[in-house]
Amino acid sequence: MRVTFSKYISLVACAALVAALGCEPPTPPGKSKSTTTAASPSAPSTATNPTASEPPTTEPKTTEPATIEPQPSEPDSPAPEATEPMTTEPATPEPKPTTPDPPTTSENSSAMTIEKAAFGKTKDGTPVDLYTIQNKHGLVLKMTNYGAIVVDLETPDKDGKLANIQLGFPTLEGYLERHPYFGATIGRYGNRIAGGKFKIGDEEYTLATNNGPNHLHGGEHGFDAVVWNAEEVKTDNAAGVKFTYTSADGEEGYPGELKATVTYLLTNDDELSIEYEATTDKPTVVNLTNHCYWNLGGAGSGQILDHELMIAADKYLPIDETSIPTGELAPVAGTPFDFTKPTAIGARIDEVKQPPHVTKGYDHCYVLRGQEGKLELAARVKDPDSGRVMEVFTTEPGIQLYCGNFLDGSASGGGFKQHEAFCLETQHYPDSPNHPDFPSTLLKPGEKYQSKTVYKFSVEK
Ligand code: BGC
Predict the structure, then answer these.
(1) Which domain holds residue 256?
(2) Cβ of 323 less than 6 Å from ligand 1
(3) CB atoms < 10 A from the CB of 178, how many?
(4) Active site residue: 137, 179, 217, 291, which one?
């Protein structure tokens, strides 16, 4: 996609007007056009196409990937209507009338395009960019190097209509305040560490307690709130951005200088692939994940309670009243946590809100059947209305199902309300450093932390 400077400015101005009127859920500017240039797709070795009625086997089947047909472009199609009235408060901060540099666009041989444009500045004046990547089927991925955040992911529905299916803000300003970790890369430790304390050998480390008595998502200033270095990446079948960040020894209380890399790629097989790597100079703990908030009906289209979810897990981790795992790996069978067969997220969510449960909905880690280190199907979600399907493959042993329980319509949460999105955060189990029997999150000098997750998109009529 080529965007002229004048068109870009008019798109930015148009989005600013919509945001200022506060009448629409956040949808960043720059609707995409689909390209139809021939390319040579290569079926990913990990692609599977499980039936909706059966949990997958642990071996992924290598059937024909369920790719999305090229669709005519709908550059000006509106975001889906919200089913509930929006709050009177503007959902997003006022966009600043910045004059961005003209975007640069590059193409590769497989009809992928990457466009880089200014996204604004952090509070200390550091410039931040927005990368827009489009694949040959017209899927659009927007990412920023602030927090290595997925800002937007546009995919077609069963009628070919594009919508952004990931919650976020239309401008950088929303991300600079404390927000619900929309689309963010989470580190050094995804989810909670009890009491903000853990030991390596005899040495005890103390972290910030930013979630009641516990440490959450890397602390006060986690990887979601730092500026990453960014490098555009192109392969025969994919394009994206490689983000790197060096976390200083002692940052947020964690030992060791940690060099972290996260590579986000949009492929021509309609996948968002995320690969994490890290090394350290002292023993430390690492558990990186991504915190996308998905709504397969389109961000702002209402609740996700009718989305049908399958999780390839026979066990989950019960939690205490502060959401720390008790240590038990409990069977899901016969409980509202059982998603071994596709089930509407909302079918039993009210049971999870009642004692003895302690949450406002699903906010639990599942013990995946797959073998750790092997990319295997972890979850599949279908929105029956739009026909959009998302499959999640991961090398991680766990997946956190969180259903936007704390979204309350406030501006700091983009105006989104409870259960307007679900998160499937692939990770090691919460509080692993304090549970020696959980898969280890310890990383030592000379070792390399490696993790991969693939979100694959398709439609089913
Ligand atoms: C946690 C939730 C938390 C949410 C947003 C999820 O990963 O499990 O408890 O509210 O992130 O921070």
Answers:
(1) 5-36+55-459
(2) yes
(3) 12
(4) 291
Q: Is 160 inside a domain boundary?
A: yes
Cβ neighbours of 212 (radius 10 Å): 11
Nearest-atom number in ligand 1 for the CA of 323 is 9
CATH number at residue 374: 2.70.98.10
pLDDT in tens, 286-320: 999 999 999 999 999 999 999 999 999 999 999 99
Atom of ligand 1 nearest to the CA of 406: 10
The answer to whether 435 is a known catalytic residue is: no
* Within a domain: 50: no
Is the pLDDT at 361 greater than 70? The verdict is yes
Q: Is residue 65 part of a domain?
A: yes
Catalytic residue (one of 217, 396, 425, 435):
425
Indicate the helix (H) or strand (E) that contains 319.
none
Q: Indicate the SS3 state at residue 17.
A: helix
Number of domains in the chain: 1
Looking at residues 183-199, what average pLDDT do you find? Answer: 98
Instruction: Give the C-alpha separation, 437 to 397, whole Å.
Output: 13
So what's the pLDDT on residue 327? 98
Ligand 1 centroid, distance to 226 Cα (angstroms): 19
The answer as to whether 41 is a domain residue is no
H-helix or E-strand spanning residue 9:
helix 5-21
Ligand 1 atom nearest residue 405's Cα: 10
| CA–CA gap between residue 426 and residue 454 (Å, rounded) | 10
Cβ-count burial 280-291 (b if 16+ within 10 Å, e if not): bebebbbbbbbb
Task: Decide if 215 is catalytic.
Answer: no
